[in-house]
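Forgive a beginner's question, but would it be possible to get any protein sequence you like and the tokens describing how it folds?
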Amino acid sequence: MHRIVQPSSIAPPAANYAHAVRVDAATCWLHTSGVVPVAPDGSTPVDIGDQADLVWRNIGAMLDEAEMAPSDVVSVTTYVVAGEALATVMAARDRFLGTHRAASTLVTVAALAQPAWRMEIAIVAAR
């Protein structure tokens, strides 16, 4: 149902993502808001790597609740406060998605809604 679109006439992706993902005949869609690094107890880790792992755990919980899996993710938009370790944030995405590739955009921003939040991620999943 998902097909990676990577024309040979353009340069390959710069990291572990797909330029585009075609979805045919999806019967279930999940669109998240920006998922932030807040644990169930309301705490937010200080370390950007810990924040990234927590955001992906939160996304995993949403996928589970929606009866979906990481392989259903077709698009990822990541917002990271400028100056943070982008490679660390991307590595957390790669660990969560494994060999699955989704369309992915990473944007650096001056700040997010709460000063403790150094990143947030919105996804679209289809099945």
Q: What stands out?
A: The longest helix spans residues 48-65.
